[in-house]
Design brief:
A 7-stranded antiparallel sheet has the order 1-12-7-14-4-3-2. α1 crosses α2. It is an alpha+beta fold. The protein has 8 helices and 15 strands. It is 24% helix and 22% strand. The protein is globular and about 55 Å long. The protein has a single domain, classed as Jelly Rolls, CATH 2.60.120.620.
Length: 320
């Protein structure tokens, strides 16, 4: 009889649901015990690892429990409610990448800040819809400074996944909670995450967690399948308080004709390589497309001092 590969994460969440435990220590015990039972430490199948290597990304469908998603979603809403700085200048856009002198953005590397959608304000400077539905994202140190996101971000489960794709000593560099708000959710232009997390050799990997369903209607991710094998096109550098986007290669960006949409259900994880071109369209639907992301680099790679985001005060940790 042929054996069926059953990913460890299914047992992981099954046991967690039985015992209703959420501590890091308990999670590590579950991973260890299930690994021994199955005779393997692999979270991903060989096919999934091959897809990641060949295509630059892999999707793990619906592996985060709904109760965990609800907890993260509620905490993000709480952070927005507590944030009181409604300056119109605190707007995030990818239409341009000049952040020179923008202390709200630059200081967010080791703090928790909210950013408005590009279309959040009308010509009179008033919010176009309910305030909570005008926030583009929260960044960029949720993984260290917020207890709910800190607990989730350092799950041993994620460390096992990282090991399967070749990350030996992961270091979490950045976290973001992205709302992709209904009606005004902004476009995120084609880009490569290695532009912002430059290492030698290239090592950054993105963990993209779907808090809600991501569809063509509400602005799901698009990727260029296999595009990670191409060159890095740009580097985003910081010198004091001046930022610059340095062109490295003039290879054209993909389009929707050459790209592939990645529609996923809530609870899924999209993991992709740092040179993989990706983008998301505006959200003109009546549904948000909330997601949480982690950017992880390899400790043995040289992390460029010119990168805008540096770990100066906060610890630089991986998964527990």
């Amino acid at each position: 009889m042929a054996q069926t590969h059953i990913p460890i994460w299914k047992f992981y969440y099954y046991l967690n649901s039985i015992y209703e435990k959420n501590s890091r220590e308990y999670s590590a015990v579950i991973v260890s015990c299930v690994s021994r039972v199955l005779g393997s430490n692999n979270m991903l199948s060989n096919e999934q690892v091959s897809q990641y290597q060949d295509q630059g990304f892999v999707v793990l469908d619906e592996i985060i429990e709904q109760s965990t998603l609800d907890q993260l979603k509620a905490q993000a809403a709480h952070i927005v409610q507590q944030w009181r700085d409604d300056s119109r200048s605190h707007t995030f856009t990818t239409e341009h990448n000049n952040r020179s002198g923008d202390d709200h953005f630059l200081q967010s590397a080791e703090t928790i800040q909210c950013f408005f959608e590009e279309e959040a304000f009308n010509e009179e400077g008033e919010l176009v819809q309910e305030r909570a539905l005008c926030i583009n994202k929260i960044g960029h140190a949720l993984h260290e400074l917020d207890p709910v996101f800190e607990e989730f971000s350092h799950l041993p489960l994620l460390g096992e996944i990282a090991a399967d794709i070749g990350i030996k000593q992961p270091q979490i560099r950045q976290s973001m909670y992205i709302f992709k708000q209904p009606r005004i959710g902004g476009v995120v232009n084609w880009h490569q995450d290695a532009t912002f997390f430059y290492t030698r050799p290239q090592s950054v990997v993105t963990f993209w967690f779907a808090i809600e369903d991501a569809t063509l209607e509400n602005g799901c991710l698009w990727v260029e399948r296999g595009g990670h094998k191409g060159p890095l096109r740009e580097r985003f550098n910081l010198d004091d308080r001046t930022t610059s986007m340095v062109s490295l290669d003039d290879t054209p960006w993909p389009t929707e004709q050459s790209g592939q949409p990645v529609e996923v259900k809530a609870g899924s994880i999209v993991i992709f390589q740092g040179r993989l071109p990706h983008y998301s369209a505006p959200n003109r639907s009546d549904k948000s497309r909330q997601a949480f992301t982690l950017h992880v680099t390899e400790a043995s790679s040289e992390y460029a001092s010119e990168n805008w985001l540096q770990a100066n005060e906060l610890p630089l940790r991986g998964f527990n």
